[in-house]
Design brief:
The protein contains 14 helices and twelve strands. It is of the alpha/beta class and 376 residues long. The strands form two sheets. Strands 1-7-6-5-4-2-3 form a seven-stranded mixed β-sheet, sandwiched between helices. Helix 2 runs parallel beside helix 9 and helix 3 runs parallel beside helix 4. The longest helix is centred in the last third of the chain and has 20 residues.
């Protein structure tokens, strides 16, 4: 069954009880039991809910995993996954990791003894050199946020495998339509489902997906014990959004390629970061492990006044936090996605005050280009 068909028919396409083409919303906190000795499949919605189960099984099928777990946000998925580790454990993390993940790792989990080393994950030697006896996992984003850096996942898996480490990948930018890290040997795939998976800017959610039974049990334990679950109404909205993932990604990606090429030819744009450009570092590696460059790009403008003018002057793109909606969203990493990162850390990673991130929606690309052309 091909991906587009899996989106519609891969899991829970028809309600078994009624034949409904839309999975019912089980808007309940608890479930009546008939026996003291034998509880039913569901007892309390934190532990399990039919609507959430339908969504989790659908995401697992799309990602090529055995189990997926839905959380109340992307950060809840990341933080719950970090709870697999113990005080004194060490992680090797890509240096330009999402700002919220940086904050959680350094300020939240750092308080109870989780140690982290940030390295240039595009350099396999740097990844390997950062591993110490206490290291338990390598944590990656590829493409990374916001500079779209590319990490060789197969290479990272080989490095991790030699040391018995987990490989964790945030694949939000790619979605399972364009990249399947589990099939490349990675252990845990994370998504901010708020973005492309839901795709309509009306739900905040996150996922952790695995293909190993013991690892699944550990994550399920954390999900149930910590309780950062996704509610049934938001699960239903995400199930609805998933059905159009392929066509949304294809259309937005085609537009992103055109816009990246237009920006690259503009003299007031210093640099464009997009893995669909042959000039992008890691272009060939990205092509080898994905089926497309995605719908997110970043670009650096010639100065701050122009940056401010563009951010505040666009009319067809929302100047907002987040990405992956049907509407185009333009963001300012220095004060949005990476505001939690100290300015010195941002500067060291190349996240400048003239960097803009652009998530391409479903508008006509000619209109989006014309909107930029008024300002740049």
């Amino acid at each position: 069954m091909k991906f587009a068909t899996k989106l519609i028919h891969g899991s829970h396409s028809i309600d078994a009880a009624t034949g409904a083409l839309s999975i019912p919303v089980s808007q309940t906190s608890t479930f009546a039991q008939k026996s003291v000795d034998h509880f039913g499949k569901y007892d309390y919605s934190r532990s399990g809910n039919p609507t959430r189960e339908a969504l989790e099984e659908s995401v697992a099928v799309l990602e090529g995993g055995s189990h997926a777990y839905a959380f109340g946000s992307g950060m809840a998925a990341i933080s719950s996954t970090l709870m697999l580790f113990a005080p004194g454990d060490h992680l090797v993390v890509c240096e330009d990791v999402y700002g919220g993940a940086f904050r959680a790792m350094t300020r939240l989990f750092g308080q109870w003894g989780l140690n982290v080393s940030f390295v240039d994950a595009t350099d396999p030697a740097a990844l390997e050199a950062a591993i110490i006896p206490a290291t338990k996992a390598i944590y990656l984003e590829t493409p990374s946020n916001p500079l779209l850096k590319i990490t060789d996942l197969c290479g990272a898996v080989r490095i991790a495998g030699k040391r018995g480490l987990l490989t964790i990948v945030d694949s939000t930018f790619m979605t399972p339509y364009l990249q399947k890290p589990l099939e490349l040997g990675c252990d845990i795939v994370l998504h901010s489902g708020t973005k492309f998976l839901n795709g309509h800017s009306d739900v905040v959610c996150g996922f952790a997906v695995v293909n190993d039974e013991k690892l699944a049990q550990r994550i399920h334990f954390v999900q149930n014990a910590f309780g950062a679950i996704l509610g049934p109404q938001d699960c239903w909205l995400t199930l609805r959004g998933l059905k159009t993932l392929k066509i949304r990604m294809e259309e937005s990606q085609k537009s992103a390629i055109r816009i990246a090429e237009w920006l690259s030819a503009n003299p007031r744009v210093k640099r464009v970061f997009y893995p669909g450009l042959k000039s992008h570092p890691g272009y060939e590696i990205h092509r080898s492990q994905t089926s497309g460059p995605g719908a997110v790009l970043s670009f650096e403008l010639e100065d701050y006044p122009l940056t401010k003018k563009v951010l505040e002057g666009v009319t067809l793109s929302a100047f907002a936090v987040s990405l992956g909606g049907v509407e185009s969203i333009i963001s300012y990493p220095a004060k949005m996605s990476h505001a939690a990162m100290p300015s010195s850390e941002r500067a060291a990673r190349g996240i400048s005050d003239t960097l803009v991130r652009f998530s391409v929606g479903l508008e006509d690309p000619d209109d989006l280009i014309a909107d930029f052309a008024r300002l740049i």
